[in-house]
Amino acid sequence: MIGKQSRMFFLISLCGLMLAILLATWGIPKIVRSQIKKNVQIDPSSQMFDKWRKLPMPLTFKIYVFNVTNAEDISAGAKPELEEIGPYVYKQYREKTILGYGENDTVEYMLKKTFVFDQQKTGSLSEDDEVTVINFTYMAALLQVQELMPGLVGMINGALGEMFTNLTDPFLRVKVKDLFFDGIHLNCVGENSALGLVCGKLKSDKPATMRPSEDGNGFYFSMFSHMNLTETGPYQMVRGTKDVQELGHIVSYKGKKVMNTWRDPYCNQLNGSDASVFPPVADSPLNRLYTFEPEVCRSLYANLVGPTTIFDMKAIYYEIAEEALAAKTANRDNKCFCRKNWSANHDGCLLMGVLNLEPCQGAPALATLPHFYLASEELLEYFAGGISPDKEKHNTYVYLDPITGVVLKGVRRLQFNIELRQINGIPQLENVRTGVFPLLWLDEGAELPPEVQQELKQSHTLLGYVEMARWILLSIAILVLLASLFKLAKSGALPMCGQHTNSVSFVLSATGNGNNKFH
Ligand SMILES: *[C@@H]1O[C@H](CO)[C@@H](O)[C@H](O)[C@H]1NC(C)=O
Ligand SMILES: *[C@@H]1O[C@H](CO)[C@@H](O)[C@H](O)[C@H]1NC(C)=O
Ligand SMILES: *[C@@H]1O[C@H](CO)[C@@H](O)[C@H](O)[C@H]1NC(C)=O
Ligand SMILES: *[C@@H]1O[C@H](CO)[C@@H](O)[C@H](O)[C@H]1NC(C)=O
Ligand SMILES: *[C@@H]1O[C@H](CO)[C@@H](O)[C@H](O)[C@H]1NC(C)=O
Ligand SMILES: *[C@@H]1O[C@H](CO)[C@@H](O)[C@H](O)[C@H]1NC(C)=O
Ligand SMILES: *[C@@H]1O[C@H](CO)[C@@H](O)[C@H](O)[C@H]1NC(C)=O
Question: Are both 444 and 481 inside the same structural domain?
Fold first, then answer.
């Protein structure tokens, strides 16, 4: 009678344990995962949605400009001596306009950025500061003409004389605000027929950095005004309502699923997100985190470094690696980014760390990391001073919350350069040394504001409780089972242990096994 009862008790507690195991290893994690997914997916019902659509805080957009301090000597053949000035800090607001939801779990949107100068963070510097920088448009026009019609270079230079007033050297004395946003006027009205050629090319190529002037007689050149208030896109992004691991993946840009910028399907792939969202990476962190960068027409990636902490939270840290911008000799995959010769000496990306933007932007610009960080040392030899790569200041990185994939802190840094080329027959360039000449670099950073950090921490705490509940449930089930075993043994219903054997040791060894199994 007693034996029967305790056998019953044993069976029920065994079922209880099995149920607890099922819940702890499968049921609860599944519920947690689906809750996380609900909160991170791109859907109006999700917690993250409004933050994804309109960033709750502006990004900090810092510009550092390279002031040339020995312009005259460079024209006479000296090595350039530069002085980094900055940061000039702008707030960058980002807002998305949703165009609709499409097939294959996607959302289509336009992205608008707005820049506002932040005098407080810029400190003592002012947008009216005068700097001497490489004359980007001038060099761009000459390099393009030399490439297209080598015989015409001399004639073009005459044209440029009308386009740019007072042509004395390949440098530009300019207020930083004109260089960044307001624009430098280029005149297209003149007698010279070659002038028409240059202006005609600008009109047909429509480089983003050239804004036609209101009167139609010329252009304004500026580095960033085309980004201010202009909507880019449409982007088509995976919402993650089906497979959360695909969340944020950009599947098309401007209606195209692949680019046609580069000469090979591999380089033309659209990979990764727009850096606003990433999938949760807790279970198995991706080795590479891809982002698609329309400004340089390619996907870039940061490599997994490992787990760390930031803002008192666990985080996964990713950092840009040398291989992303490596020369094709160092990374065969990059071969197709070397589409055009940018110098008589170098093809496309023969040098480490240089990306040729000509195929992308229609202007012979070269992108590198700031101060040629992770780039070929050969590039550094060109300068007499002012260039010193430093990992802390010049790398690109991101900290992700492993559970939600939210960006806790991230910085993207990029430098724009153009070749200063020695060209015979052009008085301003006859004696200069050929090399990659930096113009400016930018640092675009964001970190989670403290309120949102708090929100995230609270949800982590909640998850911690759920996790704890799992183990408590399991422990209780094991204890009950042990109690029932104990009772069973005492009642003598257990065949292999007699009344007088030491039942406690049996129980203890069973506990040991049980614990091993579940931890
Ligand atoms: C940039 O360098 C020039 C000398 O080439 C100097 O006159 C000018 O003040 C510098 N600009 C700033 C903002 O320091
Ligand atoms: C959806 O996915 C299928 C299969 O991958 C593909 O054939 C189809 O073109 C996609 N539709 C859109 C609108 O992208
Ligand atoms: C961006 O455009 C807005 C509106 O035209 C303007 O107020 C703002 O000053 C611009 N930003 C910069 C940095 O020029
Ligand atoms: C061009 O040079 C002349 C004489 O050297 C000077 O008078 C004029 O102001 C200069 N123009 C500009 C736009 O710098
Ligand atoms: C560079 O451009 C500016 C503005 O267009 C012009 O004033 C200057 O003379 C140019 N210098 C050269 C060498 O082209
Ligand atoms: C795109 O992503 C795939 C898979 O993640 C990877 O194998 C490929 O190398 C990436 N392509 C580029 C251009 O980065
Ligand atoms: C680049 O230029 C060099 C010399 O001018 C030439 O030998 C080489 O074939 C060119 N490479 C490409 C990819 O056009």
Answer: no
